[in-house]
Amino acid sequence: MDLKFLVVDDSVTMRRIVINSLKNLGYTSYVEATDGKDALAKLAADSSINFVITDWNMPNMTGLELSQAIRGDANLSKLPILMVTTRGVKEDIVQALAIKVNNYVVKPFTPQVLKEKLDAILANL
Question: The whole model's pTM is what?
């Protein structure tokens, strides 16, 4: 499967880390967004995006709100979503999984952890 990632994080540094990790795994196609509202606009403009990696804590629209919007949109609802966030308490993870986020990574993470989470999602598609 040829993947085009939407990497959503208000931190330029964190977007670079995720993108560099993706590049090291052989994924070269991606679009960046700075928050959930920006991400929804990018999704509306580019139908070739087929995987979302999002932070939770962002201004304007959180990753959780973005994930809920994606799941509520008939055209986007099947998109795989990986939440990458500093929010590591069990209640947050349960809340994200309850709205059908496909998997969850707590920052800081290693490229190996990112690969394992991506592989797990892709194996279930």
Answer: 0.96
